[in-house]
Amino acid sequence: MQNIDSYVEKNKDRFINELIELLKIPSVSADSAFKKDVLKTADEVKKSLEKAGCDHVEICETEGYPIVYGEKIIDKNLPTVLVYGHYDVQPADPIELWTSPPFEPVIKKTELHPEGAIYARGACDDKGQMYMHVKAMEFMTSTNQLPCNVKFMIEGEEEVGSVNLGKFVKENHEKLKNDVILISDTGMISKETPSITTGLRGLSYVEVEVTGPNRDLHSGLYGGAVANPINVLTKMIAALHDENNHITIPGFYDKVENLSDEERAQMAKAPFSLEDYKKALDIDDVYGEKGYTTNERNSIRPTLDVNGIWGGYIGEGAKTVIASKAFAKISMRLVPHQDWEEITQLFKKHFESLAPKGVKVLVKPHHGGQGYVTPIDSIGYQAASKAYEETFGKTPIPQRSGGSIPIVSLFEQELKSKTILMGFGLDSDAIHSPNEHFGIWNYLKGIATIPLFYKHFTELSKK
Amino acid sequence: MQNIDSYVEKNKDRFINELIELLKIPSVSADSAFKKDVLKTADEVKKSLEKAGCDHVEICETEGYPIVYGEKIIDKNLPTVLVYGHYDVQPADPIELWTSPPFEPVIKKTELHPEGAIYARGACDDKGQMYMHVKAMEFMTSTNQLPCNVKFMIEGEEEVGSVNLGKFVKENHEKLKNDVILISDTGMISKETPSITTGLRGLSYVEVEVTGPNRDLHSGLYGGAVANPINVLTKMIAALHDENNHITIPGFYDKVENLSDEERAQMAKAPFSLEDYKKALDIDDVYGEKGYTTNERNSIRPTLDVNGIWGGYIGEGAKTVIASKAFAKISMRLVPHQDWEEITQLFKKHFESLAPKGVKVLVKPHHGGQGYVTPIDSIGYQAASKAYEETFGKTPIPQRSGGSIPIVSLFEQELKSKTILMGFGLDSDAIHSPNEHFGIWNYLKGIATIPLFYKHFTELSKK
C-alpha cells in the first residue's frame, strides 16, 4: 500500500488528540453511576466511524449498553473483514494509586516509551487499540486503497461479560456475515518481538456470600461460640487449592488439554527473563501450580483467583465485631475444551460442599466465556503475519494469551469464521491496573500495520 | 434507703429524655471524622455530673480524647467508690442494617421489652449504663442519702483501647485512690436472672497486611503465575485454626488456666437454652473449639476472630484483577494469665512464618488488655449481691463474661483495688451491632439498684 508511513507521520498529532478526547469519557460499564458516560462514548465512536468513511453507521440498542455498527461494502464479491472492539473500560479504582487522574489523559515519556505513552484508563484496553482500526480505515478510504469490504462492531459491555453482544450476534448472522474477524484487544511480546495471539483462556466469574448469625455480633460475647463468616470464608477459599497449587474442585481438570512436550518446548523458546519479570513486579519469587513454568501457568493452565474479598469492619481503627456476612468475587481462567458453564456448576457444587454447619452459602454465577484457539495455517493468520513482517521486519511469534475475550468463541460458533488477534499492547501497559497506558509508538505502529492485513488477506483470498 | 422507687417513678421520663439527648451525639472514637462530637459528649457528661451533685468536676485532657473526672468527698474516714464508664461508642456501620438512624434515638416496644427499649448506638454500651450511675448519684445527693465518698472517671477511648486512660491512672494514684471500683459495662443473664460478672477476657487486636506484586494486575495475564495476596491471606488465616478449632499459634495456650470439672459443672448450672440461642441468631448449629460447651467457648476459653477483611475489587459488577494488597483486622480474646503483649508477639511471629515466598507480610499490633477475675468473697461483691437481692428479689449468679474491658486489670495493678461489674444489659441488646438498644426497664432497674450497692458497701466496710 502507498504512503502509509507518511500519512501516519502527517496525521499523528491528530490521531493522538482524537484518542485523548475519547479517553476523557469515563465509560465504566461495571458501575451504573457512569451510565451517561458509557452512552456518550458510543455516540463518539459512531461519529468517528462516519468520519473514517463508513457508509452506514448505526447505534444498535440492546437491553444493556448499545453496540456501534458501521460498514463499507465496496464489492459483494470481495472478502469482508469484521472488526470487533469495545468502548467500555474497567473501573479505575484503586484511584489513589494513579499518578494522574484516570480520565484526564496525559502523555509521559518512559524508558520503554521514549516517544511517550498516553496514561488513562482504557488507553490500551481497548479504546486505544480499537481506535487504531478506525484510523486505519480512515487511511484506506481517504487514499482510495480499501481492498475489501469492512464491518465494524464496537460494543460497550466487554468488561462485564458481553451478554447482550452475544444475543446481538445470534440475531444478526446475515448483517455480520464475514470472512474473518479482526480484533486488537491483546498484547505482543515486546516492541522488538511482535507476536500474534493464537489462544485465549475462558472465564468463569462468580460471587460468593457466606452468612452466619442474622446480625453482626460482639466478638467478646460470641467469639469462639458461633461460626465467624469471615473465618469460614477464608477456610473455604483456602481449600480451593492444594499444597501444590492444584485446584481441588472435583472434575475441574477433566477436559484440560495437555500439551505435548514438543509444544511446551516450542513455547519455552519465546524470549522471557524470570529475573526481569520478578523485578518488574517487585516480588522475591513467583508462585503457582507445581510442575509448570510461569509462561505455562498463565497461558495453557487453568487458574482460580480471588478478585475481591470483603466483610466486617474495614474502616479506620478497631471494631470488635463478628460480621453477619462475608463476600468474595472469584474468577477462574479456563483453557480450551473446558466449558465455562460446566465449570461454574462444578465450582458451585464444590464450594457449597465446603460450608460447615452454622453458615449458609450462596454462589452467584456472574458471567463467563469459552477459551479459544486459532490455527496458524489459516489465510487470516498468514495475512496478519505478513503485515507484521512488513512493519516490524520480523516474523511474529504465535502465542497463547492468559487473558479472555469470552465473545471470540461465540463468534466462531455463530458466524462460522475465525478471529485473528492482532494485539499491539505490552504486558507493562498495566491494563486493569492503576496507571494504565499505551505507547504512542505502539498506537501508530498498529495504525500502520492494520491496512497491510487487509491487503494481504484480500490477495490470499483470491488464490 | 428511702423512696428510691418513688424517686425513679417520678423522674423516669426526665431520666429517659436526658439519656436520649446524650445518645444523639455520635461519639465514635475509632473514626476521627467524629472528633468534634466525641469532645462535645465529654462536655455533656461534665455538666451531667455537676447536676448530679459532684463538688468538683473537670475535663482532664490527654493525648487523645479527654477523661471526665468528678468527685464528692463527704468524709475522709468513709470508704470511697470509684465509678468508671465510657462516653465513646462503637462505629455504627453497617449503617444500612439499622431500622432507625443510629444517632436518632427512638423508643420501641418489643416482646422482651414491653416497657420499651431505646434504640441507638451506645444506648447500652456504655452511655446508657454509665448514665445510670449519674442518675443514681443524683438520687443520693438530692435526698441526702449518699453514704460514702464517690469519684467518677468517664473516658472517651474505651472502644479504641483506653491507651491514654492507662497513662492517666498511672499518673494519678492519689487522685483516684478508692476502696472499690464500680463499673456497669457488662450484661446479666436475663431480666429474671440477675448476674454479676466475675471474669473478663483479655484482648489482643492486630491488623495484618499482605503485599504481593507492586501493583494491581490483570488476572488473565498474571493469574496463576504470581502469588495472589487475597488467596494467600485466606490460606494464612485458615491456618490459624486446626480441624478441631484449636488455635495453632505455638505457645498460645501455655498459660491458659484450665478450670476443674467442679468449676465447669458450676458454670453449667446457669440457665441456658441452646435451641433459643440458635433461634435468636438464626443459625442451624453452633461452631467452636472441640471439647467445650457454648458458654465455655465464650467465657473461659481464648478465641481468635477476624473482625474485618478487605482487598481487591469490592464494588458493583466484576473486575478481573489480582490485588497488590490484602488486609484483615484480627482480634484474640484471652483468658486470665495470658499476657496480651506476649500473645501479640506470638501471633506476629507465627503469622509471619505462614507467609509463602512471593508476598511480604506486615503485622501491626493495634491494642489490647489483660483478662480479669474478681473473687466472690470480697466486700464489694457481697455488697453488689445484696443490692440485687433487694431490687430483683433473687441472689445474682456469678458469671464470667467473654467480653473485655482491658483497663480493669490495670486498675487493680495501679490502684490496688478490686472492680465490681454490675451490668444491667442483655445479650439481645445488640451492642457493637446494628440496632443496639437498652431496655427502659433495665435502665431504671440499674438506677434503683446502684444506690443500694453504696449503702451495703459502706455498712460492710464498717464491720
UniProtKB/TrEMBL annotation, chains A, B:
Top-level taxon of origin: Bacteria
Pfam families found in the cross-reference section: M20_dimer (PF07687), Peptidase_M20 (PF01546)
Gene3D superfamilies to which the protein is assigned, alphabetical: 3.30.70.360, Zn peptidases (3.40.630.10)
Alphabetical UniProt keywords: Hydrolase, Metal-binding, Protease
Keyword Electron transport: no
Location of the Peptidase M20 dimerisation domain: 199-358
GO molecular function, one term: peptidase activity
GO BP annotations, alphabetical order: proteolysis
The protein, known as: Dipeptidase
Organism: Gelidibacter maritimus
Higher taxonomy: Bacteria, Pseudomonadati, Bacteroidota, Flavobacteriia, Flavobacteriales
